[in-house]
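Exercise 7 asks you to align residues with tokens for two separate proteins.
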Amino acid sequence: MKRLLTRGLAFLLALSLLLGCGLTALAASDDELQDLITESAEFLLGSVDSPQVGSVGGEWLTLGLARSGAAVPQDYWDGYYAAAEDYVAACGGVLHERKYTEYSRLILALTAIGASPEDVAGYNLLTPLGDYDKTVWQGINGAVWALLALDSRDYPMPQNAEAETQATRQMYVDYILSRCLPDGGWSLTGSDADPDVTAMALQALAKYTQQDAAAQAVEAGLECLSAMQNADGGFSSMGSANAESCAQVIVALCELGISLDDERFVKNGCTLLDNLLTYRLENGGFKHTAGESEANMIASEQAFYALAAAERALEGKNSLYRMSDALPLISNTVFADVQNHEKQTAIEALAARGILNGRDDGLFHPDDSITRAEFAAVMVRGLDLETREGSTFSDVNSGDWFASAVGTASAYGIVNGVGGGAFAPEGTLTVQAAAVMLARAAELCGMDTQTDGSADGLQSADWARSGLAFCLSAGILDADIDPTAAATRCEVAQMLYNLLQAAEKL
């Protein structure tokens, strides 16, 4: 039934274009979009039975399928992750000497399936993006995709000790802004704006519109795109109207929270979705240009994730590239040393979401202690907090790997210093200190932290009693804990797991 509905819809949409796109409402229905996505997902799964690392049949396919919510067999996700691990290991963690979009693309796909790019076969794929000069060697492409990758789950800015110029997010934003053309658009080279590159630049800038310069550039970019749009609602690049250009503009509008029915992007009654669907074939694939008769995989993958972006917008979900809602889709065991551990579920659930990491040897070391800086980083990732600048501590330097996490945790009121303007980042975290911070995090999550219980039966500091009482009453801590003891990595995993479950964040 869905196949007949979808094919009938595609025919009516094609007919509507011939008649001046008078049936645009058909292209915007949530139910109909879901039907289109279902059939196109079947086409893609049938075309690529084993995705590998690569720009075709790899990351964009994985991203689209994961963000669409389509029914995908478990072994498909597991197979892709295994292929990614094998590829990264074979490369020795160096995906390319000069094209750093290779890292960004893989980061996006791994994030989409709920896997951590910070530990793939023992390599942190975020680290290369901390090298500004090497990242922007590709020009605007490098900066755009680095931002999209880093912001996909608000990853801390990676510190790259080998970089001649340590990158910041703002440097990438400024680079994109500096490449804006007089007409308001962007291109890889030359003085004429290209719709694909302009749309991608807008996708990357979407999270920075609180900055006046970025907001102005976005508005100018939208005007430029509107002026470039064809009479049939589509876009042309390199002299040819094509599906991919239309798809990229759809994604850009969705990232910016702009309706696809926005009057600036409706030409002669034709919306972007109307135009995109004219490239769609009966089998669910998409052509690159109107004159072709066979599906093109690049066009099919980009058109598919554009449909996913449109459907997510209709349902009020996070946009395509804002993946804090991405759930772990792989089922592999993360750490060999937590097999049959009483806290294995908590450890692996948080590790799969990129909240917890292993050590350099690939193991978790569940009984090791945890530092205050490590705990701050875990809390920021666990609560998916946007980066903010908090208190400045005398023993936290801007170049420290934990500086952003400590600043953010401080800004949200989760952590305080230890007195004298210091934070003691390398200091061992105690159970009672963890309880106090967890109670503050619970309040941040909207939980009521007032309790009739008490921690009077425990030997603890006075400042920790209310936090301990809440964590005990909420089931975040076990009653047999020693508040003054050093918290172990497995205990922290269980505490945070319990909190996120209680706050309905998992």
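Second protein for Exercise 7:
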Amino acid sequence: MQSDLRSFLAGAGARGLVSRPDGAVSLMEIPERMEAAGREGKIFLAEQVEGFEAPLVYNLLGSQELLALALGCGREDAIRRFIAAGENLIEPVLVENAPVQERVFLGDEADVSRLPLIVHSKKDAGRYISAGLVVAKDPDTGVQNVSFNRMQLKGARKLGVRMMPSNHLGMMQQKYEERNRPMQVAVVLGNHPCELIAASSSPRYGVDEFTLASGLRGEALEMTKCKTVDLAVPARAEIVIEGEVLPRVREAEGPFGDFMGYYVPVMENHVVRVTAVTMREGAIFQTMKAGSEEDSRLLGLSREAAVLKAVEAMGAKVRALSLSPIIFNCAISIEQRFEGEAKNVILAAMGAYPWLKVCVVVDHDVDVFDKNDIWWAIGTRLKPETGVVQVNNAFGLGRDPYRLHQSKLGLDCTIPLGAWDEFERITIPRPGDGIGFPV
């Protein structure tokens, strides 16, 4: 049996990484419960949601341990695992009698409002789908594209969807709109983390992200044909919403709390007409909070891969690297080879990833996945007069009317080369260390 969301939850639960509230919870309680689970680095699974049939799950990749579990590797090896998968894409395979089509709802029965969509932020325009993988097909090549796109619930069979013209889904939709044709889409919910990682990776246009998902799995992802649209979706997902993006139709959508922790304003965005909903027996609805640790890990992994490649290309011995908890900041631990190497690492990282704003380089004894450890290194090892690198008037995030992201800062928080006797970190004594305590 191919691994899916359910098997991943079972594995995480066996490690004590799943938080389950007692009894039923309401939609309005869920955001606060989600936030608490996120602080603990645990998956949140509400098995009973008041007024809804489906359970709700959140924060599948809310810690580095969960990401490593999903990829079947050590927590410092996730980036290299991602890079290897990108170099070994595998074509998915089609299967019949897929679990995701155990229940099929057509016409007026395809009511999306029956799913436990939540209001994520206080000023959001309404209930949103935030963890759906949107699948569409290029009308010229027939190659599928997979991406994350927020979707506002506008009616039982109507969704508002945000797609930017510069992104692959927006480019595809423009082709359909020029021909005055609707674009068929499938919104896939309740996915194994490998599919989530692939959908957030943004490979070059024309690469089907499900081939990367297969590469991450090390085997062909099982897919199945949809019921009302000519698309293929993961066979063991939990829920699929089928529909079409209407050409030349725009409606107000938003505001919505985005990944930077601010609200994006109301925009005129596209509209999806729902044609079918299919699901597994006992289907689990999956949600995600923009700007959460999980969101940052998904957004960060492909960018971390670009930074790692650039830094290692100059010969640096990288122990670990992280863009969490916000993808504008990067922490890199290295094994120093020469004085000043940290500055070279900083400049290589900035050149590889234009959105990078603050880069902290530390020694290999610092845990880049621990924010407290990073701040400890800044406080005890940074020498401001020589350890600060500032780059002005450099391109960063494009959506920046106040020019907050058009300059960069690097911090060299490494010790003087080889001075480990003076910088050995204290540790507590443990049984078996052979330490005798004086009377």
